[in-house]
Design a protein that fits this description.
The chain is α/β, with parallel strands linked by helices and 250 residues long. It has eleven helices and nine strands. Strands 4-1-6-7-8 form a five-stranded parallel beta sheet, with helices on both faces.
Length: 250
């Protein structure tokens, strides 16, 4: 099970934007006037787009690739400095804790994250809202890695297969996220997508993008777990799911 974080499990948009602005100014010496679209994108993608949108002359501040690592470090520092504001200006998405608990009870499930944010920032957000205990972070995929999200899905699956010494079947993985770009990443990564209409994309947009199922939110934990269970069952020749199937096999 791969979970997106921002606007799927938590909403800390306001605090994150302020942290982005601080980190951007520190690294480039320029104010962040325009912030690129963030939904479904990695920190590196957002940073490179921000350079262009804000007219930063990289020849004056150094090659853009060399700025990425300092920006990531500054962003982690800026967000950590605002951890006390996460509860005031942010929140866990309704039903997040209960949905994670319900999915975690399914037989053979390993839960991790597939997120556009870096690992330190992912841990900070989830720990702050008491959600970290549901995840194995060692097999996740993070926005600070040099992969597009579709490839990162495959990387995360490989990490899980190697760590747990299992063969992941064709129907062994679901990506739960909130954006059209995340639906596309699931398709490119060869996994099912359960889209949650809790972000900026509507349910209709998520269906049109090809989501395998669309949930209004996470408040009905049993429904979330039931959809995950359905999506991870291989189809019989009749087109119906087999009655019993383990999500991974040794």
């Amino acid at each position: 099970m791969l979970w997106n974080i921002d606007l799927t499990l938590v909403d800390v948009t306001r605090v994150t934007r302020e942290a982005y602005a601080d980190a951007f100014r520190t690294v480039t010496g320029r104010p962040l006037v325009q912030l690129p679209q963030m939904a479904g994108r990695s920190e590196s993608e957002i940073f490179f787009d921000a350079l262009a949108l804000n007219g930063v002359d990289v020849s004056a501040v150094g090659p853009s690739e060399q700025l990425l690592a300092p920006f990531g470090s500054e962003l982690a520092t800026a967000l950590a400095a605002r951890r006390d504001r996460l509860s005031r200006d942010g929140h866990a998405m309704p039903g997040a804790h209960e949905a994670l608990a319900a999915v975690g009870k399914l037989d053979g499930v390993i839960q991790t994250v597939l997120t556009g944010t870096s690992k330190p920032n992912a841990l900070l957000k989830l720990r702050h809202f008491g959600l970290e205990s549901f995840f194995d972070f060692t097999v996740g995929g993070y926005g600070s890695e040099p992969y597009p999200k579709g490839a990162l899905v495959r990387v995360a699956r490989l990490r899980a297969a190697e760590k747990y010494q299992v063969t992941l079947g064709e129907h062994a993985c679901v990506y739960i996220a909130d954006s059209v770009r995340d639906v596309a990443a699931a398709r490119m990564g060869g996994v099912a997508s359960a889209a949650v209409a809790s972000g900026r994309a509507t349910a209709a947009e998520l269906r049109a993008a090809g989501a395998d199922t669309v949930l209004a939110g996470l408040t009905d934990a049993d429904a979330v777990a039931a959809e995950v269970d359905r999506l991870t069952r291989p189809l019989s020749r009749s087109g119906r799911p087999f009655a019993c199937w383990h999500r991974y096999s040794r």
